[in-house]
Write a structure and sequence with these properties.
By secondary structure, the chain is of the alpha+beta class. It has 2 domains: 5-68, no CATH class; 151-549, Cytochrome p450 (Orthogonal Bundle), CATH 1.10.630.10. It has helices spanning 29-82, 105-116, 135-144, 156-161, 175-193, 195-214, 223-239, 248-266, 269-272, 282-307, 317-330, 341-372, 374-387, 403-415, 448-452, 455-458, 496-513, and strands at 5-11, 21-26, 119-124, 127-132, 151-152, 219-220, 425-426, 431-433, 436-438, 443-446, 514-517, 545-549. It has a 5-stranded mixed beta sheet. α5 (175-193) packs across α11 (317-330) and α12 crosses α14 (403-415). The structure holds protoporphyrin IX containing FE.
Length: 551
């Protein structure tokens, strides 16, 4: 039997109050009572909920108004602070100029520089960023005021891959870092000038020469071959051994490096909004898992090195580093005890991480630039033939007799500047630049791209012309200060001697054996940087070349 409510009357009180009168008139009187009870219980509940909701609403409103006020106040304070800092475009609260950091933003910076000058300010989220957009400003900051601008940005991604800034790349400017960098620099220099590097690079090169020989005459995308070649060169420098393509460890390192490259370029939201660092985002979870696997691998390699260390047989940079570390201990260096096992492991990760992609991409630029400029390639081959007999590979001892090769490498590093914005720096103290105030902790982005492509310095910066580094007699001119693919100052790349030695041996070895040409019927390659590299990397667009043996 259904009983229907014929009518009801509710006198509603104010929000949160129980209605004082709640009368229901039913067809069935017996049911009326229980229904009234149910409804009144419900209304009591609703009223309580309303009351709770009201207090939550009030609380939420208070929080929101508080937050909005905070954002507004900090925005106004930022605008006031900006008046003493380098000029820059309007920025929104919370997001700042975030959209200017999309795509190849070193190119956006060139355009912004035309309006705001050689040094300007931006907001990346709520972080202050100052862009150094000309050679003079970069040198003033990184070289003349080196220590003030030698800090590093502390970000969630950086912390994760460097175990809390314990490597050289992400480490902050402090006594432990200075010692770590000094030892690293010494180790790289010793390795790069010794016979070991030459033997290892030439061994890896022979493998790729065999591969290229089997591909003779075909149009080939050489990226995978170059990656494998450089990975082996870098593995030899770090771990002392070369791998075969099918080795499990080699596959692991290849997978990891490629994934790190992708994730590293993406970064994490918490890099810009540190208060979101607690969020377990998918990128963070993947990054953490991969880093742990990666570090385990490096720990194993480092432990083996320590156990088998022989000062009379230094196999790689890791050995050179261990030797210098032991010497610093014996000499009683004041900061040696602050260098933990994690710092040492992270130094080894740096050899690998900082050397791999930079050298791979420099070699990719070299090959496409030579294929697009056969006249340069012919001069290189002729110079090599005049100095190095065909029955032996070029060695580091030949370098000084090969000025055209030297200037071609400089031109490749200039034209295809792989790290166009350097690695962002941070100010270590409140400082000044070109009369503007720069507070401590400001992120600094030196636009190296602009220095190597400035028409006022180079005349024809978009032309690939190795001759610009030679005098009329074909001798190498002193290196111009605007050539800064390795940056400058306290943080300048400590791997430069190794990078230059590797690129020299690889390029000279390849040009001695092969001629690289563009596939017939295809127009000139696109020599603009590939947008895939985003703001952090300037990489060559995908291309194919044909390799033929030199007779
Ligand atoms: C063509 C190859 C390379 C290029 C273009 C390159 C470029 C750079 C640049 C632009 C920086 C940032 C400097 C700054 O913050 O101002 C850097 C940092 C660094 N590079 Fe390289 N690099 C190359 C190869 C290497 C190699 C082979 C190694 C190791 C053996 C290496 C190790 C490092 C390290 C450890 C840092 C961090 C330095 C610091 O924070 O003080 N790099 N590199």
């Amino acid at each position: 039997m259904t009983s229907r409510v014929k009518s009801y009357k509710v006198v509603v009180g104010r929000v949160g109050e129980i209605p004082p009168v709640c009368t229901f008139v039913y067809q069935d009187q017996v049911r009326q009572q229980s229904f009234v009870t149910t409804v009144s219980t419900f209304s009591c509940f609703t009223a309580k909920a309303k009351k709770t909701m009201a207090s939550w609403t009030t609380w939420l409103m208070t929080v929101l108004v508080g937050l909005a006020t905070l954002v507004l106040v900090s925005w106004v304070l930022d605008i006031i602070k900006r008046r003493r800092m380098p000029p820059g475009p309007f920025f929104w609260p919370i997001i700042g100029n975030i959209f200017m950091f999309g795509g190849q933003f070193y190119l956006t910076f060139v355009e912004l520089g035309k309006k705001y000058g050689d040094v300007f300010s931006l907001k990346l989220g709520m972080r202050d960023v100052v862009v150094l957009n000309s050679l003079d400003v970069i040198r003033e900051a990184l070289v003349k005021k080196g220590a003030d601008f030698a800090g590093r940005t502390q970000t969630a991604t950086g912390d994760l891959i460097s175990e809390g800034g314990k490597d050289i790349v992400m480490g902050d400017f402090n006594p432990t870092w200075k010692l770590q960098r000094k030892l690293f620099h010494g180790a790289v220099r010793a390795y790069a000038t010794g016979r070991t590097l030459e033997d290892k690079v030439q061994g890896a090169l022979n493998d790729v020469i065999d591969e290229f020989s089997s591909l003779e005459g075909k149009a080939v995308d050489v990226e995978a071959h170059v990656f494998k070649l450089v990975l082996n060169v870098v593995c030899s420098a770090t771990f002392g051994h070369r791998y075969k393509m099918e080795d499990e460890d080699f596959q692991f390192l290849m997978r990891m490096s490629q994934k790190f490259f992708e994730l590293g370029a993406q970064g994490m939201l918490a890099d810009i909004y540190p208060s979101l660092a607690f969020l377990p985002t998918p990128t963070k979870t993947t990054f953490t898992k991969m880093s742990n696997e990666f570090f385990k691998y490096f720990k194993r390699e480092l432990d083996q090195h320590i156990q088998t260390f022989d000062p009379d047989n230094l196999r790689d940079i890791t050995d050179h580093f261990i030797k210098l570390q032991k010497e610093a201990e014996e000499e009683g260096d004041a900061d040696i005890n602050s260098l933990t096992d994690t710092h040492i492991r992270q130094t080894i990760v740096d050899i690998f991480g900082a050397a791999l992609d930079t050298t791979v991409q420099s070699m990719r630029w070299s090959i496409v630039l030579l294929a697009a400029h056969p006249e340069v390639q012919e001069k290189l081959a002729a110079e090599l033939d005049s100095v190095v007999e065909r029955n032996r590979q070029p060695s580091l001892a030949d370098r000084s007799a090969l000025p055209y090769m030297d200037s071609t490498i400089n031109e490749v590093l200039r034209f295809g500047i792989v790290v166009p914005l350097s690695v962002p720096h941070a100010t270590t103290v409140d400082t000044t630049l070109m009369g503007y105030e720069i507070p401590k902790g400001t992120w600094i982005m030196p636009n190296l791209w602009n220095a190597v492509r400035d028409p006022e310095i180079w005349g024809d910066p978009n032309v690939f012309r190795p001759e610009r580094f030679l005098d009329d007699d074909g001798k190498v001119l002193p290196k111009p200060s605007a050539l800064m693919p390795f940056s400058a100052g306290r943080r300048a790349c400590p791997g430069e001697p190794m990078a230059r030695a590797d690129i020299f041996l690889l390029l000279a070895g390849l040009v001695q054996k092969f001629k690289f040409s563009l596939p017939e019927g295809e127009g000139p390659p696109d020599l603009a940087p590939d947008p895939k590299g985003a703001g952090l990397f300037c990489i060559a667009c995908p291309y194919k070349v044909v390799m033929t043996h030199r007779k």
